[in-house]
Specification:
dTDP-4-dehydrorhamnose reductase, alpha/beta, Rossmann fold, globular, RmlD-like-bd, binds NADPH dihydro-nicotinamide-adenine-dinucleotide phosphate, two-stranded parallel sheet, 296 residues, 6-stranded parallel β-sheet, binds dtdp-4-keto-L-rhamnose, 9 helices, NAD(P)-bd_dom_sf, EC 1.1.1.133, dTDP_dehydrorham_reduct
Length: 296
């Protein structure tokens, strides 16, 4: 097995790199500087020269609000890039493991979303991620589209880091309490992707033609509002001595925190299918919080 990871400088990419090294799995890491995911010619050479057996695409345009004013760039990275990778996956007959988002849903449901539920993105980011999913389904046959949500880690930019920064700058914060989802640790997503890649590889070697490809949901095991997530972060940070004073965190309605992009009100993902097909359990995000805070 030799895994090619794109987006290696992102928060998921760095967690993948850590775990591939720790598990001594042969791999090639590509940052945007190494190779743009749209650069088919360069990627073709890398795949052939390294004997790549699967691609994990952790590259993406993830600036939800900025996407509203940069739709072309978001389209290039979230749709054209995955299209190019899907075509390479088909040409080399190797699986493509791609990561997508809970923001493909409109949020009008009141029970956890399963993989076959109707999509309906509320903003440009979600729309481009959905279009990327559709392009992969059109151009590749051996694909895993892993939708995840509310990703946090010790790396990059994420809600946890924003909250810790704001807590140092202000005594009072307002955080929306009427948007509900599942925080997910990027290290757990990395582990889930590697486990799926490994199982696909084994099944392929054994000639099991019905390898389980398709869309899968992977997210945290407990749903909360952004306000609830902020409180969990502050309480854990305070307990670990990483934060002296917990700010006052007012629970506010979405209308009092206006943003360029509309976000789904409810985007809880059911992880039952992944657990059934691959034996991968949901991310126990509360359990890993303290470890992540200690690395900050
Ligand atoms: N963050 C979240 O809360 C969530 C993320 N997801 C999905 O998970 C995946 C990983 O997200 P995350 O790790 O947070 O994302 P990041 O924004 O942290 O990382 C994305 C990486 O992609 C790289 N990249 C951007 N454009 C290109 C390109 N054209 N060619 C090659 N590389 C490129 C970026 O490079 P550079 O560093 O140079 O900018 C960056 O390192 C994405 O598919 C995202 O949509 C899903 C749900 C929630
Ligand atoms: C900073 C801040 C945000 N908020 C709100 C705004 C928004 O509704 C919510 C989350 O804010 P953020 O902008 O940090 O998170 P956002 O960029 O919307 O996070 C999303 O990123 C993409 C990539 C995904 O795929 C999603 O799953 C999700 O994780 O919290 C407050 O209410 N108060 C605050 O002080």
């Amino acid at each position: 097995m030799h895994l090619l990871v794109t987006g290696a400088n992102g928060q998921l990419g760095q967690c993948l790199a850590d775990q591939l090294r720790a598990q001594a799995i042969p791999h090639t890491l590509l940052t945007r500087q190494d190779a743009d995911i749209n650069d088919t010619v360069v990627l073709e050479k890398i795949i052939a020269n390294n004997g790549v057996t699967a691609i994990i695409n952790a590259a993406a345009y993830t600036a939800v609000d900025k996407a509203e004013s940069e739709p072309e760039l978001a389209q290039r990275i979230n749709v054209d890039g995955p299209t190019a990778l899907a075509k390479l996956s088909a040409r080399f007959d190797i699986p493509l493991l791609h990561v997508s988002t809970d923001y493909v849903f409109d949020g009008n449901q009141q029970t956890p979303y399963i993989e076959t539920d109707a999509t309906g993105p509320t903003g440009v980011y979600g729309q481009t991620k959905l279009d990327g999913e559709l392009a992969i389904q059109r151009h590749a046959t051996k694909y895993i589209i892993m939708r995840t949500a509310w990703v946090f880690s010790e790396y990059g930019n994420n809600f946890l880091k924003t909250m810790l920064r704001l807590a140092k700058e202000r005594d009072v914060l307002g955080v929306v309490a009427d948007q509900v989802g599942c925080p997910t640790y990027a290290g757990d997503i990395a582990q889930a992707l590697i486990s799926v890649a490994r199982q696909l590889h084994e099944r392929e070697k054994q000639g099991l033609a019905e390898a389980r490809y398709g869309i899968y949901h992977y997210a945290g095991d407990e749903a909360v509002s952004w306000h609830g997530f902020a409180m969990a972060i502050f309480e854990e940070a305070h307990q670990r001595g990483a934060l002296t004073n917990i700010p006052v965190v007012n629970a506010i309605a979405t209308q009092y925190y206006p943003t360029p992009a509309k976000r789904p009100v409810y985007s809880v993902l059911s992880t039952v299918k992944l657990s059934h097909d691959y034996g991968v359990d949901a991310s126990d995000w509360r359990a890993v919080l303290s470890g992540v805070l200690l690395k900050n």
